[in-house]
């Protein structure tokens, strides 16, 4: 494959992944700088493809680190055929962040630039048991948690399940993987990204199937934090190389996708400001001495009103376009930090009214709380409703038709489970 990105571009965004988050980043770079992005998905698709602002470099399955690094080397060679230029590398999934961190020197030698993190920092942020230990140390709430290590053979499943019993535990429970990358590559009937479990038998069934499928990581079992999707929060921070928190952006989730494999993906969000939650996120990043973007999933307890931190993603979240709608496009933060090595403007804290949606507005209103519906109306009146996959400067008949079909499909398929998940 030849390079089609103009040689006149002084830098090239290189985005691994092929979903909403990858296209949103390409769009944000185009909005801010008019540049095209190199997208590295597993395969060609019309979420990131069929576009005038992207060139695709499909990699096939991206779980083997050596294979991913070799492919990124080929991409770097093509993008720099006419001379070196910075390649801003961004990962769409946690396991791809790990590949970046563990192969830091190789990738930088190829011309890639990205935030500097150590494996220890990444482990503490992305391995859920270590993240919860940090929350405990800092006095930040997280759900009651038990951990089952599928690689151990001295931990009988029935005994473990019996230990999760009243009066300390109450069903429903949430089960998710400690190692999201390995879990995504694990196959068994009924596997989901997040399991919502209502009985001990359901918990035992998933544990047995995971072990039989040779999943070698940990499984995180948590007490369900009560409340609907509208109690979920997405919190994004950008912390610069000097340790300054340059950007804080909070969003309230209106509704998530509950289809198998897509749990935790927000379909409609509104920008908001909740100082207590934002301060806790900044406290965590300071404790990690983080560099770059970090995103937290949080849920507000339906009865106590207290925030519970569910997990940290060591990257921008999939549905982060609310930041741009609220006046904080992430692209300039990356360019200033990694290419220009310039100072950032005074710390930015986003707020509404602003919304980002990937479903019909009628459906967003249907699932919004009363307060959220008011914010949606205010955002619409202020012309601050973003639809990240519908970009006026990237029109294409085939792509436009595909996006319309996706919108219609979303209207039919959103499966709003009563008492939604800690995702």
Structural description of this entry:
The protein is of the alpha/beta class. It contains 15 helices and 17 strands. The chain has helices spanning 20-33, 65-79, 94-102, 104-109, 119-126, 128-138, 157-163, 180-184, 200-212, 275-288, 322-325, 330-340, 361-367, 370-381, 397-413, and strands spanning 12-16, 37-40, 54-56, 87-91, 112-113, 145-149, 173-177, 194-197, 218-223, 232-239, 245-256, 266-272, 292-300, 307-313, 348-349, 355-357, 385-386. The longest helix has 17 residues, at 397-413. Mean pLDDT is 92; it is low at 415-421.
Report low-confidence residues grouped into runs of 5 or more.
415-421
Q: How would you sum up the global shape?
A: globular
User: What's the number of extended β-strand segments?
Assistant: 17
| Gyration radius from CA atoms, angstroms | 21 Å
Approximately how much helix is present in the residues? 25-40%
The percentage of residues in β strands lies in 15-25%
SS element count, helices: 15
Largest sheet data: 8 strands, mixed
Class by alpha and beta content: alpha/beta
Distance between the termini: 38 Å
Mean pLDDT: 92
């Amino acid at each position: 494959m030849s390079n089609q990105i103009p040689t006149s571009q002084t830098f090239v965004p290189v985005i691994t992944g092929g979903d909403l988050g990858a296209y949103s980043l390409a769009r944000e770079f185009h909005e801010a700088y008019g540049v095209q992005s190199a997208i590295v998905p597993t395969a060609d698709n019309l979420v990131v493809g069929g576009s005038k602002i992207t060139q695709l470099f499909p990699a096939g399955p991206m779980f083997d680190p050596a294979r991913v690094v070799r492919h990124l080397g080929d991409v770097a060679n093509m993008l720099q055929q006419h001379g070196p230029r910075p390649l801003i590398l961004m990962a769409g999934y946690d396991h791809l962040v790990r590949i970046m961190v563990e192969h830091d020197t190789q990738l930088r030698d190829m011309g890639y630039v990205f935030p500097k993190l150590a494996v220890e920092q990444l482990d503490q942020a992305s391995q859920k048991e270590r993240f919860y230990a940090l929350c405990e140390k800092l006095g930040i709430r997280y759900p009651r948690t038990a951990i089952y290590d599928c690689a151990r053979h001295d931990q009988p499943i029935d005994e473990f399940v019996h230990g999760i019993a009243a009066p300390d535990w109450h069903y429903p429970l949430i089960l998710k993987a400690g190692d999201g990358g390995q879990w995504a590559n694990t196959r068994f009937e009924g596997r989901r990204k997040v399991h919502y479990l209502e009985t001990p038998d359901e918990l035992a069934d998933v544990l047995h199937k995971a072990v039989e499928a040779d999943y070698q990581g940990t499984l995180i079992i948590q007490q369900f934090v009560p409340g609907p999707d509208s109690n979920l929060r997405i919190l994004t921070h950008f912390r610069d190389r000097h340790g300054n928190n340059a950007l804080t952006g909070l969003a309230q989730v209106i509704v998530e996708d509950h289809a198998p494999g897509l749990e935790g993906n927000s379909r409609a969000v509104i920008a908001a400001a909740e100082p207590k939650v934002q301060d806790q996120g900044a406290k965590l990043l300071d404790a990690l001495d983080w560099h770059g973007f970090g995103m937290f999933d949080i849920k507000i307890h339906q009865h106590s009103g207290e925030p519970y931190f569910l997990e940290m993603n060591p990257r921008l979240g999939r549905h982060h376009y609310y930041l741009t709608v609220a006046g904080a496009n992430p692209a300039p933060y990356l360019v200033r930090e990694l290419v220009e090595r310039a100072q950032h403007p005074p710390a930015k804290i986003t707020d509404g009214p602003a919304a980002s949606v990937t479903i019909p507005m009628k459906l967003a209103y249907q699932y919004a709380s009363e307060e959220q519906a008011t914010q949606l109306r205010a955002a619409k009146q202020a012309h601050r409703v973003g639809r990240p996959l519908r970009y006026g400067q990237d029109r294409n008949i085939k792509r436009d038709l595909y996006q319309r079909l996706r919108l219609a499909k979303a209207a039919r398929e959103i499966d709003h489970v009563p008492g939604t998940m800690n995702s």
